[in-house]
């Protein structure tokens, strides 16, 4: 069985505070919308950084604190909204930059906000089948690079950073009852349309158009149908949580903590209410980070461990949702 052994976070020094936001968009200062989101600060990737640089720094921080792990890692899993090259994969590039042995496996996973649970399940499976004993998991959020500078909603919501985790073979913890969902018919609800094979960059890629949702969209920039994603979240995620609980003959109070993807405080609270979860067991930690995509669950777990709030014998339900549209969850027995 696997356990979370070590973790580290990295955040770029550049920040974008609410005051910075209001200086750029002074007409929004008196709006009642922004305070409901519970976000006060976000970290922003530097102009001279690429996403894997942040992942490298998080991993180096972890390995410098635990140098013996550098020779023991036998698999790398990496996720980020962006990659270094069309080929090779970024996980393989990081193996060399981290000075790790060459007889290890490497794999990239790209599923946006749902990625971290995919990484956990892959690490879990590799360990259970005996293909690995220590897996380095690296999650990166760099979505701000893809957001148009005048996109108020997404400029306010998203932040950048990276996490590195060691998942290792152990009898102390168990991850189980994984649930995965994906609805490709809703791919346009969270999308960067232009820039890959289906829609290469062209002369119209940076010209706004009115999309099927009646909103302005720039084809080569990040777009999110906020209202549609909100409805999807409140429909799908409570059902998934209930299915995971039913599978284990559990009631909602049997769970010690609920770790939900953190788009913003308003959505987490709305989801908590619709799913009828015990409010005191739902963790919210978005104020200093914003929506960090695949990183949000990793931030929750790391900070809770640092605060000594995750103790042996706890039962934790983890759930994520986002681009795809995708959603997933699992139970973590500590």
TL;DR?
With 334 residues, this protein is of the alpha+beta class. It contains 9 helices and 15 strands. The chain has a 5-stranded mixed sheet with strand order 1-7-6-4-5, with helices on both faces. It has a 4-stranded mixed sheet with strand order 8-15-14-13, with helices on both faces.
Structure description:
With 334 residues, this protein is an alpha+beta fold. The protein folds into two domains: 2-171, Thiolase/Chalcone synthase (Peroxisomal Thiolase, Chain A, domain 1, 3-Layer(aba) Sandwich), CATH 3.40.47.10; 176-333, Thiolase/Chalcone synthase (Peroxisomal Thiolase, Chain A, domain 1). It has nine helices and 15 strands. It has helices at 18-24, 33-36, 51-65, 90-97, 115-128, 152-157, 226-247, 265-275, 295-306; strands at residues 2-10, 15-17, 41-43, 75-79, 105-108, 134-141, 161-169, 174-182, 190-191, 209-210, 216-217, 223-224, 257-260, 315-322, 326-333. The strands form five sheets. The chain has a five-stranded mixed sheet with strand order 1-7-6-4-5, sandwiched between helices. It has a four-stranded mixed sheet with strand order 8-15-14-13, with helices on both faces. It is globular, with a radius of gyration of 19 Å.
């Amino acid at each position: 069985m696997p356990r979370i052994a070590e973790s580290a976070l990295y955040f770029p020094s550049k920040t974008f505070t609410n005051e910075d936001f209001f200086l750029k968009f002074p007409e929004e200062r008196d709006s009642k919308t922004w305070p409901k989101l519970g976000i006060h600060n976000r970290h922003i990737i530097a102009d001279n950084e690429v996403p894997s640089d942040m992942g490298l720094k998080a991993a180096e921080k972890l390995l410098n604190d635990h140098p013996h792990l550098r020779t023991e890692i036998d698999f790398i899993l990496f996720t980020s909204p962006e990659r270094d090259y069309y080929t090779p994969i970024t996980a393989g590039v990081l193996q060399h930059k981290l000075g790790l042995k060459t007889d290890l496996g490497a794999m990239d996973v790209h599923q946006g906000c749902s990625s971290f649970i995919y990484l956990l399940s892959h690490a879990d499976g590799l360990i259970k089948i005996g293909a690995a004993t220590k897996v380095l998991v690296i999650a990166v959020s760099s979505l701000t690079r893809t957001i148009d500078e005048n996109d108020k909603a997404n400029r306010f919501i998203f932040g950048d950073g990276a996490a590195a985790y060691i998942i290792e073979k152990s009898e102390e913890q168990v991850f189980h009852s994984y649930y995965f969902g994906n609805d490709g018919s809703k791919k346009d609800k969270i999308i960067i349309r232009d820039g890959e094979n289906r829609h290469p960059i062209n002369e119209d890629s940076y010209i706004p158009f009115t999309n099927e949702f009646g909103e302005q969209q720039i084809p080569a920039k990040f777009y999110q149908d906020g209202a549609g994603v909100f409805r999807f979240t409140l429909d799908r995620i409570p059902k998934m949580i209930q299915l995971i609980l039913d599978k284990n003959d559990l009631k909602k109070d049997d769970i010690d903590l609920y770790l939900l993807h953190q788009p913003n405080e308003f959505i987490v609270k709305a989801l908590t209410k619709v799913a009828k979860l015990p409010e005191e067991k739902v963790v919210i930690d978005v104020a200093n980070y914003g929506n960090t995509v695949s990183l949000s669950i990793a931030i929750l777990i790391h900070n809770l461990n640092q605060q000594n709030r995750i103790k042996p014998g706890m039962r934790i339900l983890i759930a994520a949702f986002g681009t795809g549209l995708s959603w997933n969850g699992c139970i973590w027995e500590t």
